[in-house]
Amino acid sequence: MAALALKVKNKNGQHILKDLTSESTVGELKLFLYSLSDVSVDRIHVLFGFPPKPLDISDDNKTLSEIGLKTGETLILEEKTSVQEITSKAEPQKPVENGVTSHEAVGSCRPGILMKKIVPPDNSCLFTSIGFVLNGNVDTSVHTLMRQIIAMEVASDHETYNEAMLGKPNAEYCTWIQQPSSWGGAIEVAILSRFYGLEMAVVDTLNAIINRFGEDKNYGQRVFLLFDGVHYDPLYLEQSDGGVQTIFAAEDMDIYREAEQLAHEAKSSRQFTDLNKFTLKCMNCNKFLTGQAEAQRHAKETMHTNFGEV
């Protein structure tokens, strides 16, 4: 009978659960999860794995080994939302006595603040950022797998991923994207959004807008990435007890509005990269270049296409 150590994340923070074994039942797991949160047993919803996917906890008599739980797993604890609650959230909010709407009052009580996690500027910042919002830690090796996923998707659909869309022939792109020096952008975010089954909201501080990838897929969850014109960083909710939340319900518009506000504040304080002044290094000939226009000119003259952040 193997003891299990499980990491549990919810809106109140992170917890380590060590009181269960592989032969403990789903019902026992639910009771422990209830004790860690304010979510009633019948409304507990759990995600696990990489990428996070729903854990089947419908049968209280099954053992944890039977539903696939192993020691070291991270469980994301959420509360099921009823159709009635979703409908009521969509209705206009009535002002409370102090002049603040009830929606605003709820939003102001959110246990945490939306923060940026800085990841290395190593040409794989997009992939490292996505890795962070998926598993909660900075792992600079995840880009290899993600680049392979993208290359396989592109190679399997020549009609969609044609030269006009990619800026280069399909096969050439597939080779290019798997090189560690190649940057990711909108095409890559869209593919990874579909692969992981999550809406990826890119908070663009250059233009103070949010570009939503997977918005039309009705995904149940959303993650946030910050983009300053050149570099990506992940966003997370830092909670009052030190916990970290990176995956949010798609209907959580409070956190979405916080991300919008962050975009506007970043633009007003000029927290973005000036594309006419930032420095790049050509990874083919080691020449330093200033600004996007100079880099494009160098690429046209030399056919060099691999640039690194400086």
TrEMBL record:
Q: Superkingdom of this entry's organism?
A: Eukaryota
Zinc-finger as a keyword of this entry, yes or no, is yes
**Primary localisation category:** cytoplasm
What sequence ranges are listed for the domain Ubiquitin-like?
4-77
* Ranges where the UBX domain occurs: 1-77
Q: Name one GO cellular component term.
A: nucleus
**What does this gene product do?**
Hydrolase that can remove conjugated ubiquitin from proteins and may therefore play an important regulatory role at the level of protein turnover by preventing degradation.
User: What name is this protein filed under?
Assistant: Ubiquitin thioesterase OTU
Q: Which organism is it from?
A: Parnassius mnemosyne
* Organism placement in taxonomy: Eukaryota, Metazoa, Ecdysozoa, Arthropoda, Hexapoda
